[in-house]
Amino acid sequence: MLDGAPVTPASQEATNTTPAERREELVRFLKALAHDSRLKILGLLALRPMAVEDLAAHLGLESPTVSHHLRAFSGVGLVRSYGVAHRRYYELDRERLADVLGNLSADETLVDLAAGTGADAYERKVLATFLDEGYITVLPLQPRKVRVLLRWVASNLVPGHVYGEEELDTLLGSMHGNVVRLKRELIDARWLRREGDGYVRVLDAPALQEPPAEGEERPV
Fold first, then answer.
1. What pLDDT sits at residue 79?
2. Burial letters 25-49, b for 16+ CB under 10 A, else e
3. How far apart are CA 125 and CA 128, in angstroms?
4. Are 88 and 127 in a shared domain?
5. 121 within domain boundaries
6. Once rounded to an integer, what is the mean pLDDT over residues 182-187?
7. Assuming Cys at both sites, which of 100, 115, 200, 209 could form a disulfide with 9, CB separation 3.0 to 4.6 Å?
8. What pTM value is reported for the model?
9. Residue 218 — pLDDT band, cuts 50, 70, 90?
10. Rounded Cα gap, residues 131 and 176, in angstroms
11. Same domain, yes or no, for 94 and 123?
């Protein structure tokens, strides 16, 4: 039987799992896609729901082989099945596919993938020090720490979306009291740019520099 509860991908929503567990689940999802025949099945199911026999005929494969591929999809929640008369049809869960791939490209997910590395430990320490329930208590003097916080702020903005002045000020104000400085810092760091009468969250964000050596930072 191919029905079953989908496996949650590695994402920030899986707060009850460790980063290592989320990476492992994401690997399972990507492995389910990493096969030429499975990508063809994905494309066929994107057209319409199909039975195993229909998929086998289109692909020139044996039905047991197709069932094997569908089990891999079912294991990560990519397909749903239902019966009609004496046949079982499989349909693609487009929302599931878009959700996982969309989460994968999100900044917070990409940062989460680095959990356990030195850079990740430094970033988490900065966020733990200067964030209080999603609010920046104070912007530090050290530029590298500021960049970590700017990355966090930028992760709460939608890439490509044009924010009006009032909309952006309201959103930034929910994360820090000095909206003018925060906006200027985001622009200077190339996380944000002016576009017409609004502001756009830059899609290709600058990478964080390596965490500094002990005693390297200087107040500005």
1. 96
2. bbeebeebbeeeebeebbebbeeeb
3. 5
4. no
5. yes
6. 93
7. 100
8. 0.52
9. very low
10. 10
11. no
